[in-house]
Design brief:
Elements lengths: L24 H4 L3 H9 L16 H8 L4 H4 L3 H8 L8 E7 L2 E3 L2 E4 L7 H11 L6 E5 L4 E7 L9
Antiparallel strand pairs: 1-5, 2-3, 4-5
Length: 158
């Protein structure tokens, strides 16, 4: 039996920066261990996001793990819930909720200025009593989870 190790550089893509001589941060970084793995192993390209899906690490990682996203993908939130050890019941619907920065009615920043996890916990603790019947969980930095018990008759649209 052949044993394989699949390393996913999830989140490593970036744009070239003038300050780095037109290189990406990954190209400019000193990464001797990654370089050694690349020299001693095999590398290549694979289509991990099936046609019809928006490219994202949630869909790609599900696919790499052997799951057919067309059959099993229900959004990022259930994966986030599993990572946070939050149990979801059959009638639960999970939503990923990000803290963001809004300025003049427009989203200025997707991460609330890279809010700390501690600040996020404080905000979730303040919001939770305002949302009875809903379960809020603080995650890492700006990433949070909302779980609703929707029942079997819930109708959801993208």
């Amino acid at each position: 039996m052949t044993k394989l190790v699949v390393l996913l550089g999830d989140g490593m893509a970036d744009l070239p920066l003038e300050a780095l001589g037109g290189r990406t941060p990954l190209q400019a970084a000193k990464k001797p261990n990654m370089d050694r793995l690349a020299r001693q192993g095999r590398s290549g390209l694979a289509r991990t996001v099936p046609e019809g899906f928006a490219p994202g690490s949630d869909v790609a990682n599900l696919s790499v793990l052997g799951y057919d996203p067309a059959r099993h993908y229900t959004g990022r939130a259930p994966l986030e819930a599993a990572a946070m050890n939050v149990r979801l019941g059959p009638d639960d619907i999970a939503f990923r909720c990000n803290f963001v920065t809004i300025e003049n009615g427009l989203m200025k920043d997707y991460s609330a200025g890279q809010i700390s996890s501690e600040e996020g916990r404080e905000l979730i603790a303040a919001l939770a009593p305002l949302m009875p019947g809903r379960r809020l969980y603080s995650g890492v930095s700006y990433r949070n989870l909302l779980v609703l018990q929707a029942g079997a008759n819930a109708v959801c649209t993208p």
